[in-house]
Amino acid sequence: MASRYIPPHLRSKQQDSQKQHHPSPEANAKERNPSDGYSADEIANQFGCAPDTKVGTLNAAEADESKLAFVLVFKDQHPEWPPRIFCKSNLHLLTASASPTPNGGTLPETSGAEDLPTHPIPLFTQDSLTTSTPGKWKIFFKGWYHIQSVTYLEPKSPELIKMLDGKFTPAGKKRSPEAWEQSLGMRWGVVEFVPLGEGDGAKRVGACGKGDGEGDGRGEEEKGNPIVPLKPMVGKKTKSVREMLEEMRLRDEKTGTVQGVS
Fold first, then answer.
1. How far apart are CA 109 and CA 113, in angstroms?
2. How confident is the model at residue 29 (pLDDT cuts 50, 70, 90)?
3. Residue 188 and residue 205: Cα distance in Å, rounded?
4. Backbone angles phi, psi at 172, to 5 degrees
5. Coil, strand or helix: which one is 70?
6. Residue 2's pLDDT is what?
7. Distance from C-alpha of 199 to C-alpha of 100, rounded to nearest angstrom
8. Which of 52, 90, 100, 157 has the fewest CB neighbours in a 10 Å radius?
């Protein structure tokens, strides 16, 4: 089909209209205001997480899965925040060695200062975008923090029972016996954070400084907001028709289904 002819004096107006209705990803990134908040997918994309990553409390980037990249404090999930959060996944990111602990392995009841990560950690909090839309969740950059201490709670220990009771009961959350059993059967970490430049962690960060901003103890204002400017979202790979047909063929072969026969 032939394209519609547009007179020269109208072409510039059409181009301006297209730009207005279809701004580039770069333009969108520049126009975003941090006070508007961000989605979990945007945060994951900003830090280079693996595609389709489900953002949790402790998160690592795909380029270095042994290093804590950022922390997300979910709303109504951490009754002692600030300064403490509770988590059960990716606990290996809470140590400087960052070696995953196999199931059945042991972690110390507390982590000594020498074994805690020393790099500044960007921390985000989840909240509603506005009071008029309480169900619309957005994520906001809270600031740069470092880990002051980590305490591990062993499965089914009295300390873990007390912590979980304080985590779920006050919020009025209904949990099935299976959910309670699952939570009680896991090792949890209680992590205390303090703002960058405060507490004992400031000494550790400063002592490990290399002048690159990763461990030099720079203030929050100097380090800036890691989500600004916002990177364009990396689109998910779209499957071609050939790929979808091949998947259908393999699935039919596996199930013994013959195409065209019901």
1. 13
2. very low
3. 25
4. 70, 25
5. strand
6. 57
7. 27
8. 52
| Cα–Cα distance, 124 to 120 (Å, whole number) | 13
pLDDT bracket for residue 207 (50, 70, 90): very low
Q: How confident is the model at residue 23 (pLDDT cuts 50, 70, 90)?
A: very low
By the 8 A CB rule, do 107 and 101 touch? yes
State the average pLDDT over residues 111-137.
75
User: Per DSSP, what are the bridge partners of residue 147?
Assistant: 193
Map tokens 């989500």 to a residue.
227
Percentage above 90 pLDDT, the chain: 33
Alpha helices in the chain (DSSP H): 8-21, 25-31, 40-46, 158-168, 177-184, 201-207, 220-223, 241-255
DSSP for 83-102, please give it.
TEEEE-S-GGGGSSS-PPPP
Structural tokens at position 102: 């196999």
